[in-house]
Fold these 4 entries.
Entry 1:
Amino acid sequence: MREAPGALFNDQSCLVVDQTMVEEIKQRALSDPRGRFRLCLHHRPSDGVQQMIIACTPRSYSAPHRHPGRVLSYQMIEGRLSVVLFDDNGRVEQVFRLGGDGPFCLWLGASQWYMPLAETETAVFCEVLQGPNADDQAVEWAPWAPEEGGPEAAAYLRKLGCDVLGIGVEYEKQGLDCPDVTGKVVA
């Protein structure tokens, strides 16, 4: 395996992912400053198919984005994950809650704005995305949402997490109240 910030890259011709490896990915996500970690099953960003086992936590902020001209799918492995879909103005259109007793697979068409939100301490899923992802055209970040790491990102994540997840369990553990943003553009 090759290591990169926030990721391990497969360098084998055959790779078996077992529960031990899933546990390692979860532990790395829990200790990662961004609250997520991934195992890339593909070898390089230039590969035609990008397959990743990703663990994320409720504090992980992957800003709303889309992949122009590319489709993707999520398959749950463990935990619960909400995938929030947005319109072009940042309004929540739909929420898919994956894992637990609910659906375990989601396919998204090209150019759909979306954002994953972990509902459990860790959510582990497989993401399959059309590649390559070696150029700056592979992802488009939503202009109406804060940048990852920016000063507004934590507040945006908290608002959206509370609104989408309802009770905001992980936020309540931190002693934070959930603001009422129902039916509003989260900004």
Entry 2:
Amino acid sequence: MKSSVEFFFDFLSPYGYLAATQIDDLAGRYDRDVVWRPFLVGVTVMNIMGMKPLKETPLKSDYLTIDRPRMAEIFGVPLVIPDLTNTNSLAASRAYYWQRETDPGRAKELAKRIFHRLWVEGRDITGADAVAEEGEARPGSTATRCARRSGITG
């Protein structure tokens, strides 16, 4: 058996969303499984490494306005650019990992629904209720129960 592909992403990244629409098919062509691993870019890259968000970086921010829709078109997927002010992915990431402990397949489906909510519907994913709504699309979701019980607010 070949080793798995580890897919690290932040739900707040449009490139994470775009990659999520392609990663399983791409890995499947090479007979590999994908292990999805959400993480918080804001904490990891920006706070620890001191880098600015792309949208605050000269030239890169201009390029993003061209590149994101272009990539969505190439991949044949919908993409809206939501207002991410005061949005974070902590609850979504926690719910994903809770669900993965009992059912990795459901966790991956939850992640895809969370991406869809934000990058296709343009709806917030910050709070426990938002994440639980996506978990409720699959009855019995561990993520839904844990999100509601924990009172995660983001």
Entry 3:
Amino acid sequence: MAGRLRPKERRRRRKKSAILAKLAVIVALSCAALVVFAIGNKIVRPFRLWFVEKQSVNQLQTKLAELKHENIELQAKREYLKSAAGAENEARRLGYVSPGEVAVVIETSKPKAPAQKPRN
């Protein structure tokens, strides 16, 4: 009776085979998930980088437009200050006076905050 297995032994072997089959399925699914993740990462990464670069380019273009606008304003101010009227207005704004004029400075006082009563 060496070739025949007892029912208990047969059940044990079937159970062991079922466990090994389940383990093989889990390993296969894990490997498949790893491959899908690796391929997905290779596909998604360039799109993510493109999106980040596009945002950066848009921000830089906005900043460039702002700086160009500021540059135009500064060039206009420079041209104005080169004129006689512009130079005179700027000098007066800075407190300079023409010969023979007297500078008068009017100081305005800020209203003082009312004194607070001490708390008892």
Entry 4:
Amino acid sequence: MPARVTLTDIAKKAHVAVSTVSHALRDDECISAPQRQRIQKLAEDMGYRRDPMLQSLIRYRRQKKGGDQRLTSVAWLGSQERFENWIEQGDRHAIWAAATEEAHRWGLKLEYHSILGHEKPLAEILNYRQITGIVLATFPERSGDIDFPWERFVSVSLGEVSSEEPLQVVGHDHGDGGLRVLQEVSRRGYKRLGIAIRPVVAYHTMQRWPMMFRCHDLFVEGIEAIFEFEDEGHFPRPDSLRRWIEENEIDCVVSGSDGRIFEPLLESGIRIPDDVGYVDLHLFAHTHKIHLSGILQPGGEVGRTIIRQIVHRATHDELGAESHRSGIWICGDWQEGETLRKPINPLPKLFATHPNP
């Protein structure tokens, strides 16, 4: 059996002090970002894994001194009874895969648990098993009635939730994505945007997308947004889409469904982008829809960041909820795709200028 790679081995290979390696592997900002990345990459290439026994000993000694929370496993609390049902929605595949990989890097185990109606017994089970880390991954699917003893746990929320407790949030920056879409359609000369965002999707973004487009004139000029389309389900009827577009003289459709509305648009006989443009606010890397223009959501970075925040809070003994709601919002990337016409203007500056009253 090959010998375990140690911090000393990495330090010798990297030509740095052992303390530098220790700080770099904990992503401590006292080490420069390039140096941290170099050491982390080297450790990964050498097959370094944190020693759970050693970590437990360190935590035990710190606990005897009154500090640090023992962290060996993280409970991922979802609103579906079965993990298979939870992971099939949105970009949760990417989030879970990245979170699992990051947890493994820290010597942690990630476990899915359903919180539906099980709050109090689940808390006792987790407490008995000494699982102190929690990711609340219910999204706004639950109302604000999650009765859970957060004060016992190191907790972070994946995306916005309706819990009345102000947990720290890590999620997609939907506002930034909406602004980028407004910039991109403006520079391509589109004037009348048809906003076809399903109510459940708008709800999951805490209404940020609808609000962004209702207040579009605060950000860019010369655009009008039309909201009258009534989505009839997961896949709207092509004839309804075409009638809505023609009656409102829409020249670009904005959706947030990873392309679910794109196929009905094509079936309606509308040529994209020749007749009407199409842009999607919510594209996922694992579906490989590179032909669509829109915002590619950073599920992997969200998953990694949420585990890092759990580790950070455990290291600093930050149990329970925040005194006020705070968050880390990860911006998506613009995917050029083929469903918008080519730009005819430079990327406009954000926030339209208005004359003084």
